[in-house]
Amino acid sequence: MRRRIKEKPTALVKAVELLAQQEHSEAKLREKLMRREYTEDEIDYAFERLREKHYLNDEEACRRQFGYFFEDGRMSVRQICQKLIQRGFPRELVYSCIPEDKEEHEEEAAFRAACGHFRSTVKRDKIKQFLYRRGFSFSVCEAAVHRFSEEYPDRIEEEQYFDE
């Protein structure tokens, strides 16, 4: 019985497989193909073909992903930017996606994040720390905690101060 030796797919075929699973930036897709030991020439040819067929466009992909995270409304703009930069999109492109109504979004996103995370009683400071670690500014954290305490007073644990 003969064993069939499976041939390695071309860089183009592998790139299409990877893009079918998840949208990638050119940088991240190149990194994945390099790890699979494709040559620069093979990758360049694959990218050329993918661009021709409109399967690879960093600008559109970045705008689409930024819009998705922004509309979801649970992440700060700073957190969204960091996530997209980690996914290989150029910093300038990511920052160009930030809409002008960023401040409104930040306050709503911080409030939604707090509501989704804290379902039982919690101290105000703990909420602020949680939000600040997610990239929200100090003033946005303050506003979100204030709104949270107004809408869910039963979830706020009153701080206890001791006299010494």
How large a portion of the residues is in β-strands, by DSSP E? under 5%
Mean pLDDT, rounded to whole units? 90
Radius of gyration: 23 Å
- Low-pLDDT segments, ≥5 res: none
Can you summarize the main beta sheet? 2 strands, parallel
Q: N-to-C SSE series?
A: HHHHHHHEHHE
Shape: elongated
Main β-sheet, spatial strand arrangement: 1-2
Record field, number of beta strands: 2
In percent, how helical is the residue content? Answer: 55-70%
Give me the number of helical elements. 9
- The separation of the N and C termini measures 86 Å
Structural class: mainly alpha
Family: Belongs to the RecX family.
Keywords: Cytoplasm
Domain RecX third three-helical: 123-145
Function: Modulates RecA activity.
Would you kindly provide a brief summary of this structure?
The chain has nine helices and two strands. It has 164 residues and is mainly α.
Topology record:
Elements: H1 11-21, H2 26-35, H3 40-52, H4 58-72, H5 77-86, H6 91-96, H7 102-117, E1 122-123, H8 124-133, H9 138-151, E2 156-157
Parallel strand pairs: 1-2
Helix pairs in contact: 1-3, 4-5, 7-9, 8-9
Family: Belongs to the RecX family.
Pfam family, one: RecX_HTH3
Domain RecX third three-helical: 123-145
